[in-house]
TrEMBL record, chain A:
<feature type="transmembrane region" description="Helical">
    <location>
        <begin position="177"/>
        <end position="198"/>
    </location>
</feature>
<keyword id="KW-0813">Transport</keyword>
<feature type="transmembrane region" description="Helical">
    <location>
        <begin position="239"/>
        <end position="265"/>
    </location>
</feature>
<keyword id="KW-0812">Transmembrane</keyword>
<feature type="transmembrane region" description="Helical">
    <location>
        <begin position="135"/>
        <end position="157"/>
    </location>
</feature>
<dbReference type="InterPro" id="IPR000515">
    <property type="entry name" value="MetI-like"/>
</dbReference>
<dbReference type="InterPro" id="IPR035906">
    <property type="entry name" value="MetI-like_sf"/>
</dbReference>
<dbReference type="Pfam" id="PF19300">
    <property type="entry name" value="BPD_transp_1_N"/>
</dbReference>
<keyword id="KW-0472">Membrane</keyword>
UniProtKB/TrEMBL annotation, chain C:
<dbReference type="Pfam" id="PF12911">
    <property type="entry name" value="OppC_N"/>
</dbReference>
<dbReference type="GO" id="GO:0055085">
    <property type="term" value="P:transmembrane transport"/>
</dbReference>
<keyword id="KW-0813">Transport</keyword>
<feature type="transmembrane region" description="Helical">
    <location>
        <begin position="94"/>
        <end position="116"/>
    </location>
</feature>
<dbReference type="Pfam" id="PF00528">
    <property type="entry name" value="BPD_transp_1"/>
</dbReference>
<feature type="transmembrane region" description="Helical">
    <location>
        <begin position="163"/>
        <end position="185"/>
    </location>
</feature>
<dbReference type="InterPro" id="IPR035906">
    <property type="entry name" value="MetI-like_sf"/>
</dbReference>
<comment type="similarity">
    <text>Belongs to the binding-protein-dependent transport system permease family.</text>
</comment>
<feature type="transmembrane region" description="Helical">
    <location>
        <begin position="32"/>
        <end position="53"/>
    </location>
</feature>
Amino acid sequence: MSQYILRRLMIAIPSLLGISLVLFVVLALAPGDPFSELATNPNVPPEVQAALRAKFGLDDPIYLRYLHWLAAMAQGDWGFSFVSRVDVDTLILQRLPTTLYVVGSSQLLALLIAIPVGVYAATRPYSVFDQLANTFAFIGFSLPTFFTGILFILIFSVKLDWLPFVYTSVPGSGIPWLLEMIRQAIMPVMVLGLFQAASMTRFVRSAMLDVIRLDYVTTARAKGLGQAKVIVKHVMRNAMIPVVTLVALQVPAVFGGAIVTEQIFRIPGIGSLLISSILANDTPVVMAVTFVFACLVVLFNLIADVLYGWLDPRISFR
Amino acid sequence: MALLDIKGLKTHFTTDAGILQAVDGVDISINRGETLCVVGESGCGKTVTAMSILKLIAMPPGKIVEGEIMFEGRDLVPLTSRELDDIRAKEIGFIFQEPMTSLNPVLTIGEQIAESLRRHEAVTKKQALERTIEMLKLVQIPNAAGRVHHYPHQFSGGMRQRVMIAMALACRPKLVIADEPTTALDVTIQAQILDLLQDMKERFGMAVMLITHAMGVVAETAQRVVVMYAGKVVEEAPVDELFGNPRHPYTQGLIRSIPRIDLDAEHKTRLEAIGGSVPILINPPVGCRFAPRCKHAMSICTQKEPRLREIAPGHRMACHLGDAS
Amino acid sequence: MAGLTLASPSAERRGYSPLRETWRRYRRHKPAVVSAVLLLLLIAAVVIGPFIWRVSISDIDVVAGLQGPSLAHPFGTDDLGQDLLARMIYGGRISLAVGLAAMLVSVFVGTLIGALAGMSRGALGYALMWLTDLFLSLPQLPLLLMLIYLFRDGLKAVFGPEGGIFILIVLVIGGLRWMPVARLVRAQFLSLREKEFVEAARALGASPVRQVVRHILPNALGPVIIAGTIDVAAAIIAESTLSFLGLGFPPDTPTWGRILYDAKDFLDIGPHWALFPGGAIFIAVVAINFIGDGLRDALDARKVI
């Protein structure tokens, strides 16, 4: 198993390098010098300008520039935000936990909805429950997150006045503060979680239906184990293997949804940081946040690979 | 009293094209400790009959529309799946055709055998493991104590079928249904598995219902034989009687299609094939279902269905030809 | 197999026509049929609409701002009193055009890369599949945003504010969504390459290009059409998302996403402003997805009994 994880790690590194190369090429191809506006920006002290130009080696050949940039990124030296006037890595580290908290809770919510609904629907294909679940799933993943977000605000904040629609992150402590923290996270987590749950439910259902008609399920039935045990121990366990792969493929979309959700509810995460930096032409932050998102996707794919190996003995033994 | 007595069983499937009459009025009975072979071409309803006994067919689209399945004097047809769970594996064990796909790939074989023991008998986890190892030794799996923790993909096809046999016999059932247990295996392994099955039968004294399409297997293992065609029983007899005096044209065809390697090349007996193939059982032909392929077909054969009747003690068949002679 | 003629008399009754058979199976998927009608109506509305509803999209009338639906303004007005119906019709043209154009880009790129990867038995095939997997694990939206941030001004200078952003959005969305098509086409290639009819064509001396164009691509068409349909919906969502984040079309170009972006600060006093464009995006996307589902039923050969 540990050998398998090591092998997956070895595969993750080239793809991380590949992504960094794509990002760098995009930056290099961009018309004009992305740093030229620094010269006209009165907020930037000349010595910072000079240091930056030297660091990025703007006059070096392109492969050298890539290696320099890569070395700097690898060392955590991500540059300086001209707008916030702090190091980019500090800025991102401040914002990252909020994003992970919202994305993590919504994924959890999605799993808690998708697995029971998908499993139950698959055990009763074409029943009323199955058709309802299917219709809702279909509507759910056709509703873009920005529209669900607005609908939620309209219903729960404007009409019913139950939940706040602006996320605040004032530090505090005590039960009331904690409750407020949870209360303000409900809508963003619901928006993102329901969107994910919709496509996950479809994955779970179709994977279950694929497994349920296999020979070894009949074998399990012939043992008199009972419907619940057959479904959970024999069908679900196997159906989760393709589901893990499909969910991993969805990870980039999850972070896309997170950016939109953070923007709607003004959550101070790295998604809204990306948008505000783009609007403020803060190139180092834009680059760094994009790279962080790429790293997160690779990391989650790695986690999915490990899960896959854990679920399927045929993989980890090879 | 027979151990298992199937009377007038009809299992139909609802399909887009209509009702598929996969099993259409089958009578089969098995006595305690007896080996009964059910033979016939693929698609003749052998497997559906066997699966109907424990309701292992998918329902829907499948449905037992008529008949009774008496096991030790108790009708299994009206029982719910939950009630049947106490009989599955405990009273009636099942060995499936495809050892490569009939074992769950993500559970160790030990877990898969032990779960059946733990379901039906009051054993601890440790006792279940011990009995599992014992069963693996009985089916001659080398290094049973180590292999018990291995996954199916670490076994060959023949070894997996041994595991399947161990699984089916773990709870010492009174009847074992083996659905073409050797079809998917190499010829050399086939003989080993049949020997093992015979061995186990003698050791535990259970009855065996062996489903096969190979007449060679029938001759070697069976005491009694049931020949099925297109969802119906066409002939039934003790094994010597069936091979010595086959009466139904279909049975005769089946026997003639066995390659004879004991006759030397001088004889040059031609291997005969039965022309045509099993009809699709949606709107099957009226009259005898074998008539379109039968060399002796008469006009009555396409009009009236022949009834299964006794022509000699223990020998029953369904053919109009018998009426005339 | 021998009993097949017995089981399907319908095949004899009419001459076998793949198109008619596809339509027959598509028709059985009721939501897909309703969706097709709905989408056709939507397309008709945005194409013919401006000729019937002759209200300017940019006439400002601050006094009539933020009005709900009325006879004068069936969809109401925005904060500047601009007519929302006219703006929605205009925006629909752009949203649907972006969706279709981006789909064409992704299908073209995907087919090209998939075909190359499927034909090559060597390093090129592996390299292309690695590239495909790499693109699948790219964080799409951040990259999309970054590309638009970096190239926006350059293209605006060449093609004008609207044309530049249209080309950029179509190329970027299309260029980030070709991977599923590439995988499908490659898979078709790998499975069809060894089939008899392709072998026969090869034996008869058909050139590789001819094999691909005449024998393999037509067989890969079904899955590609399904993937392409779903791509249209995804591209519409992507464009709306960009506009919603304020990084798509310029403010004076009212795409559905842009209208929603402008409306989101007036939810309490003018909810209709957000509901109409949001609803339009939802209806377009759900209809296209259902059509994709219906096509899957109709074109998936494995479902034939």
